[in-house]
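Input.
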Amino acid sequence: MPRNPAVVRTVPALRRAVNDLRARKATIALVPTMGALHDGHVSLVRLARRHARRVVVSIFVNPTQFAPTEDFGSYPRTWKADVAKLAAEDVDLIWHPEVKAMYPDGFATRIVPEGPATAGLEDRFRPHFFGGVATVVGKLFTQVRPDVAIFGEKDFQQLRVVSQMAADLDLGVKVIGSRTVRERDGLAMSSRNVYLAPDERRAAPTLHRVMKETAARLRAGEDTATAVAAGAAEITEAGFKLDYLEVRHAATLAPIASLKEGPMRMLVAAKLGSTRLIDNIAV
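Output.
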């Protein structure tokens, strides 16, 4: 029987627990999550285990990255199932703070990221988002003081933002991206997939399929604007409300016109019914 990981809910308790994990100079990996864990999260934990002797998973639904119109109150919360999954992976510690532990009365300092956070992708539709992400991740890094931190590539712009922040602020954390885990039909795993109605779930893999087809056309030499426009039209015709389908430089997220300008990343965001899906692939 797997043993349940230790759970801490206050910063002083976290510091004591981390100090205990550091005994004999053990390395620590942090996997930040908002809970509602699925196989994609499990893959992050397994990658963390390959990079460090001890693994800490944070579970915190961060209110500062949700706009008032978004799903903070209804975001899936599956605590017992999450603990069972983490126990099966032999996680050492779960950091599960209350909102007031992260943002106590009088909290007045926030991180305002630029660079990849202002690339005109997610930030164009969720201008509040990366400030909230950077602030909470900055706190997690200083609280846990990990050697490495693992983030999924599905949230590719977020991965670039966090990597830039860790480097710019000399936080001493190596940020590692983990490949996107997909369902058998290609849909990127996400906690929000539970919101999809059955007919929407059947249509959802269209995003990945169209991206793969568009990438193949680009690699075959088709003009970028033409290939992307055709892909966008197909996504819209399939019933999605498209926010963006764009090809960007994989490192900087700057606009890019051809493979000659550097490695490409194709990124998409679209609504299907009330559920907003994001995905990306290398080109």
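The first strand starts at residue 6 and ends at 8.
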